[in-house]
Design goal:
By secondary structure, this protein is of the alpha+beta class. The protein has 20 helices and 21 strands. The chain is extended, with a radius of gyration of 35 Å.
Length: 619
């Protein structure tokens, strides 16, 4: 559909009375909303009827609709699945979204093999293997898998080993010699004996840790009785590791079932969902998630959006999910999850007992996380917006959002560069930083270099504003310019702005004798600022960032791979002599003016090398 010829009124009349999914586009062809409908005609038309009551978010979204399209489906369930897939793929601005889209690892035991392996997998597929998890900690799953391989000498190779392949390996691998594998590849252990070890691995992963500890304790005692103390110490360390892993799994009084526990809390700005993963009656992990674009959404709709997005493509769906309330369209979601799992899934809102306690525990954890985030957000606002407000108040400016700071970097005038860093609402915007290689200034003249940088920056911006350049890089002007110096730097900047007819406040950072900022220079006055204030800390961060960005660019230019200095072209002058020249002369211009006698005095130079440099610049 061509958006330029799209007539919304005409297209609304063409909508079918069928279930399906509708997709809203803005004027840039970006998908801004995806929805599903039992009857497309009724649902889509409702967005454009003035009589229909809409939430603030939907009101805003409708203003940006340039055109829409739709897909007819055979059922509401089909529409639900398609809607969710399109939301995950396109991340529309006005849809309720799960911020995190993580996949969690499982321990997989390849029990269908003659000599099974223990591997880590992020997908659960129907391959006759046994899966355990999910584990929310990558460290925990590696620790557990390594522990089981060592304790039961399970192979770690990828060789295909069957009855016919046993004994065909010419050389046992390092794991055998380390005592961590019984080398089934070379027939050093029978299939039945190996299988017995695998059986104990499965018992451990199913929660029977006592059997493992008993086995290892027996082996430790036997090794000790046989005076094999080094081996006994290895078993002792393995026992310690088993206890450490088993303590991470909290036992719950919920039988041996697999279930997920979901609860959430919200405030005006945030929704945090907390999940507990219960496997074989044990809480094996927990995780929290953030939902965005939740304004004006009901709790039922938020929960529905979360479940659809979380369980789409999930490696494992348990038979039971405990919830604080039923999600919107609970029947459809249950039907969809059952089809995904291949067996019945139940959504349960427990009213009493252990299950209700689990849901309440998840809610309490979500509330704790929300409180922590609120406190963190408050501190972050003090460091950013609060600091900006302090600076605006000190300078008596009505409003500051965007600040730009500049710095010049060079070593004795060689390869002078300029940096521009940008902060908005007290936060850095690295994608809008800019760097300048000084073109018109020779030698260490910071004032002239700064004049060039500022002139180029604002001339670019004026040009982009006048021409409406398609990909502007300089057209956003700051509300305040910060100069890494006092009166002199400020005067240079104001002269450039005056020439270009721009009226932008300029503030300098005045240093004390130890080169630390002691105050701000603004409107021909030095204004003191408290060093303990957030405003002072923000100015220091901006100053440090401008300096860091300039230094980084300067080093990049000076690296051998990225810069070809004019000194590189002088015959007979290698890296050591180039460095000596740069150390003894302030600028390239001074090297050009030097006599042969002066050049001979440079460390490492003789009459021949001095003549080579002199002739290069004078012939």
């Amino acid at each position: 559909m061509e958006k330029g010829v799209f007539n919304i009124e005409e297209e609304l009349n063409k909508l079918p009375k069928r279930p399906g999914v509708y997709i809203m586009h803005d004027s840039d062809d970006t998908i801004i909303y995806v929805g599903k409908a039992v009857v497309l005609r009724n649902r889509v038309r409702s967005y454009f009827r003035e009589s229909t009551k809409k939430t603030a978010k939907i009101e805003q979204m409708v203003k940006h609709i340039a055109w829409f399209e739709y897909v007819v489906t055979d059922s509401e369930l089909e529409a639900l699945v398609l809607e969710n897939n399109l939301i995950k793929e396109n991340q529309p601005k006005y849809n309720t979204m799960l911020k995190d889209d993580k996949t969690y690892p499982y321990i997989k035991v390849t029990v269908a093999d003659d000599f099974p392996r223990i591997v880590v997998s992020r997908k659960v597929i129907k391959d006759n293997a046994r899966y355990f998890g999910p584990f929310t900690s990558a460290e925990a799953i590696r620790e557990t898998a390594d522990l089981l391989r060592k304790a039961y000498r399970i192979r770690n190779c990828r060789l295909t080993i069957g009855e016919n392949e046993k004994g065909t390996n010419e050389r046992k691998c390092l794991y055998y010699h380390m005592g961590q594998c019984d080398a089934p590849c070379d027939g050093m252990i029978s299939k039945d004996a190996y299988r017995e070890n695998v059986s104990k691995v499965l018992d451990f992963l199913s929660g029977d840790h006592r059997q493992v500890i008993n086995d290892l304790t027996r082996k430790m005692n036997e090794a000790s009785d046989e005076l094999q103390y080094e081996k006994a110490m290895e078993y002792r360390d393995l026992i310690t590791s088993v206890r450490k892993v088993s303590e991470k799994q909290k036992i719950t009084d919920t039988g041996n079932e697999n279930r997920d526990v979901i609860a959430f809390v919200r405030d005006e700005e945030s929704v945090i969902v907390q999940m507990f993963f219960v496997r074989d009656g044990k809480i094996v992990g927990r995780e929290h998630y953030y939902m965005k674009h939740t304004a004006d959404e009901t709790e039922e709709d938020i929960l529905s959006a979360f479940m659809m997005q979380f369980y789409t493509g999930a490696a494992f769906i348990p038979k039971e999910i405990l919830l604080p309330i039923l999600p919107a369209q609970a029947d459809l979601i249950t039907e969809w999850m059952t089809s995904q799992k291949g067996s019945k899934v139940e959504l349960v809102v427990p009213q009493k007992g252990t299950k209700e306690k689990l849901v309440n525990l998840a809610r309490e954890n979500a509330q704790i996380k929300l409180n922590q985030d609120i406190e963190k957000l408050k501190k972050n606002r003090e460091r950013t917006m609060g600091a900006v407000s302090q600076i605006a108040q000190l300078l008596d400016l009505p409003d500051i959002r965007r600040m730009e700071a500049y710095d010049i970097s060079n070593i004795s005038g060689f390869e002078s560069v300029g940096s521009m860093v940008v902060y908005e609402d007290g936060k850095p915007k690295p994608n809008e930083y800019r760097k300048f290689k000084i073109r018109s200034v020779e030698g260490p003249n910071d004032y002239a270099s700064m004049e060039e940088v500022l002139t180029r920056r604002f001339e670019h911006g004026i040009y982009e504003k006048e021409t409406g350049e398609a990909a502007p890089r300089f057209s956003k002007f700051p509300d305040l310019i910060l100069m890494d110096g006092g009166r002199g730097q400020v005067n240079i900047c104001e002269e450039v702005l005056d020439k270009l007819g721009l009226d932008i406040p300029v503030c300098g950072m005045v240093k004390d004798d130890n080169h630390r900022t002691r105050g701000l220079y603004y409107n021909n006055k030095e204004l003191p600022i408290s060093r303990s204030s957030e405003g002072f800390h923000l100015i220091t961060r901006i100053q440090d960032e401008a300096h860091r960005f300039a230094i980084t660019f300067h080093r990049k230019l000076r690296s051998r791979e990225q810069v070809h200095s004019i000194l590189d072209d002088i015959p007979g002058i290698g890296p050591k002599r180039r460095r000596a020249l740069m150390k003894n002369f302030e600028s390239l211009e001074d090297i050009k003016k030097a006599t042969e006698e002066e050049l001979q005095k440079v460390e490492g130079f003789n009459a021949s090398s001095a003549k080579s440099v002199y002739d290069f610049f004078h012939n």
